[in-house]
Amino acid sequence: MTIAFDRIGKTFAAEVQGIDLRKGIDKAMVGTLEMGLATHGVLVFRNQRIDDDAQQAFIEQFGPPVVTKLKEIASGHPHFYDISTVDSDGNPIPEDSARGMYLLANMLWHTDGSQNQPPIRVTALHARELPPQPPPTEYADMRSAWDDLPASRQRELDGLAVEHSIYWSREKMGMKMSDFSAETLNERKPVQHPLVRRHALTGRKSLYLASHASHVIGWPLEKGRALIEELTGHATQRKYVYVQEWRDSDLVMWDDTWTMHRSTPYSGSHPRRMRWCGVRELAPV
Ligand code: OGA
Ligand code: MN
Asked: Which atom of ligand 1 is nearest to the CA of 103?
């Protein structure tokens, strides 16, 4: 069967036909999927009953998989995070725990790994267990958001650099610098990324924003923060948003270079268990 992409969002996002991830994918398929990611931003693969090994074999095709070190959401697997409402023993995760805080922070619009240099390029999330009414995940199209800005505004923005930092996104969650250990502060230093990126495959420009995006380099702090808040509001208008309604064994893969995403509230008792993996950019951005 040939691979096909069926548009499911208004401006981006597609459902992928013709791929069974249990059988693995060859180099030609990887090329097709890379182009699919560059074109559609979010790819939804339905009904993929894969295990850890198949998920690992899949993500490896796109680059060196992220080595997962964050203990808050560690899965025990070297390349996966558990995005889960329960711990490995099946007990609910308290909201005020470090792990609960991580899940809550996912409700802020973000791109994965922008607080690092190099940042994450592609993420894949597999639905292992869903509640009867699963909370959707929302995705925003920062390429359309860029395209729709007036040319004069685009000229002002292109070339600006932004500081991204885990401390800024956590501050929004009510944490303070004093909540972090000296070791963490030393390991997780703020980084800089361009505000406007050009996609390596399509050449199309997009905004690059995230909950970690703090301020504009060389601008007064508050002015930069106000700009990032304004652009985030612009880029997450409903017309730019695709809402992923999860079904059992969906695998959703997204291009972190021009999309943002966020989780939506869930307070049910039935577990929601997702397995996360990703690949980084090969060079600093
Ligand atoms: C992620 C993420 C949102 C969700 O996996 O990177 O932000 O709805 N997930 O679980
Ligand atoms: Mn995320």
From this structure: 10
